[in-house]
TrEMBL record:
Keyword Protein biosynthesis applies: no
SUPFAM superfamilies registered for this protein in UniProt: FAD/NAD(P)-binding domain (SSF51905)
Enzyme Commission numbers on file: 1.14.13.-
UniProt-recorded name of the protein: Baeyer-Villiger monooxygenase
Annotated source species: Mycolicibacterium vanbaalenii (Mycobacterium vanbaalenii)
Length: 495
């Protein structure tokens, strides 16, 4: 078989793929490639560009620790600034030249004889590589709901991940399905221009006020000249977010959910202060505990529903017809455009995002479903030699994706460093170490919000289809980074 041969193939050119590439370069690897199905880098921050897009983790925290950005215009920066940051980092660390865009990976299979991964591309090519790193993100496969009659609709249908920048909502009759973090940002923007906007809500979301800050030119110059000033702000925002995850999620049982009750009250106060109509307020009120489903920040979302041309429909959708939507209560709304803010198919399509076949023909997706979702230290699985899966069960530290990435980079450093030192060709996590980690995660989650709060009606993607909350790694960033630098090397078979 003739195929291009690499030391490493990274799938995904978002922040995880960029981070993995930087780590490889730090360790002296140059013969690697980053593949991405899109035609540019940035992952979610390239794909998403709907109006109102911004991050709701402070940008001082939402960035690589080793690469602070003095140029953020505000605390909660807009999508295009974050995309710019991805571009700047990729250029500064010289990883862009390793990227191949518009390249869809179909799957990867471990070749035991050659001790290589064979990576199959949609165009029929096969690449060979010693290491396979999937950096496909948690929210990369758009979910399109299966609504009866949706194919009969004559108007425009747009998913928020495929926003058409030339689309002008002015004067349009628009329906939007979904009230997740994306919809919370988009709805106020659409309402500014649309002639009529109907929001189809299935599960209300907790929204709390957003305390945003503008960084003046003077502040930016200070951050650039005296980086410690920005570091101090980061220490504050890191600590706040770390504390929120600790008391509100990881140690929920210990705190008796007090933080969550206070946060739910804050959201209630915001609704009370902005919406006079009692019935409307009740419809927008979640009936699950704060944190079961990802909450969000906005100062304009609730207020938007006061506008006379904005309607909330929470009775469910019966079907679509050529010119509109019929709700379960029989009400028909005629619309020109249907916006699907329906999120992502996390568990079915994303775990894993490509077919991965390891040793003895073990199929990763099937194995996860036949047994339990699991990954040692959120990165590796038994019978998958030389494979690091960055979007794995028990990987995500909650709220800030960059912290997750940074401990994974450290794990790479320790593991691949040992490989180099021993002149080894393969690593594989042992069954015993994997089971030990899974048992520990299961035990730690016993104290978490997910197993102690009332999440029954939340329909939260934090839970897998079996009802287990296997997304979160329930520990502090400090602990995860420490473990990534100290895990016993005997947890891997290194040959
Ligand atoms: P999401 O949170 O999964 O929300 C999808 C919405 O679509 C939900 O309201 C869901 O209702 C609804 N939906 C899906 N299928 C439906 C159907 N068949 N009928 C009716 N409603 C349906 O997705 P998202 O809003 O795109 O956000 C995903 C994640 O991206 C967020 O949780 C966050 O992590 C990230 N994000 C972050 C930011 C930020 O930093 N500011 C912004 C946007 C997104 P149910 O709840 O009933 O399922």
């Amino acid at each position: 078989m003739t195929s291009e041969r690499f030391d490493a193939v990274i799938v995904g050119a978002g922040f995880a793929g960029i981070g993995a590439a930087i780590q490889l370069k730090r360790m002296g690897y140059e013969n690697f490639v980053i593949l991405d199905r899109e035609d540019d880098l940035g992952g979610t921050w390239y794909v998403n560009h709907y109006p109102g897009l911004a991050v709701d983790v402070p940008t001082t925290t939402y960035s690589y620790f080793f690469e602070p950005n003095p140029n953020w215009s505000r605390l909660f920066a807009t999508g295009n600034e974050i995309k710019q940051y991805a571009d700047d980092v990729a250029d500064k660390y010289d990883v862009r030249r390793h990227m191949r865009f518009s390249t869809t990976v179909e799957g990867a299979r471990w070749d035991e004889d050659a001790r290589l991964w064979r990576v199959g591309l949609a165009d029929g090519q096969t690449l060979s590589t010693q290491y396979l790193i999937t950096a496909t993100g948690f929210l990369s496969q758009p979910h399109v709901p299966d609504i009866p009659g949706i194919t009969e609709f004559d108007g425009r249908i747009v998913h928020t991940t495929a926003w058409d920048d030339s689309y002008d909502p002015a004067g349009e009759r628009i329906a939007i399905i979904g009230t997740g973090a994306t919809a919370v940002q988009l709805i106020p923007e659409l309402a500014k221009k649309a002639a009529d906007l109907t929001v189809y809500q299935r599960t209300p979301i907790f929204v709390v006020p957003k305390f945003d800050l503008h960084f003046s030119e003077r502040a930016k110059r200070l951050f650039a000249r005296v980086p410690v000033t920005q570091r101090i702000i980061r220490a504050v925002t890191d600590s706040i977010y770390e504390w929120v995850v600790s008391v509100g999620v990881v140690h929920y049982w210990r705190t008796r959910g007090r933080f969550n009750i206070a946060a739910a009250d804050l959201s209630k106060t915001l609704r009370w202060a902005t919406i006079r109509d009692k019935q409307l307020r009740a419809k927008l009120t979640p009936d699950y505990d704060f944190g079961c489903k990802r909450p969000t920040f906005s100062n304009s979302y609730y207020r938007t529903f006061n506008k006379p041309h904005v309607h909330l429909q929470d009775g469910g959708i019966a079907r679509m017809e050529a010119d509109g939507i019929v709700a379960n209560d029989g009400t028909k709304t005629v619309v020109d455009t249907l916006v699907l803010a329906t999120g992502f198919d996390l568990w079915e399509a994303n775990f894993p995002a490509i077919e991965v076949i390891g040793r003895n023909g073990r199929n990763l997706g099937k194995w996860w479903r036949d047994t339990r979702f699991q990954a040692y230290q959120g990165v590796s699985m038994p019978l998958f030699p030389n494979y690091l899966s960055l979007a794995s069960p028990y990987a995500f530290l909650g709220l800030n994706f960059f912290n997750t990435m940074e401990y994974q980079m450290r794990h790479m450093e320790r593991l691949l460093g040992e490989m180099k030192q021993r002149g080894a060709t393969t690593f594989e996590v042992t069954e015993e170490a994997n089971t030990r980690y899974l048992d520990r995660m299961t035990e730690l989650l016993g104290e978490s919000l997910f197993l102690n709060a009332d999440c029954a009606s939340a329909r939260s993607y934090y839970f897998n289809p079996s009802g287990e909350p296997t997304l979160l790694r329930p520990m502090s960033t400090r602990k995860a980074i420490k473990e990534a630098g100290e895990f016993p090397l005997t947890d891997y078979q290194i040959n």
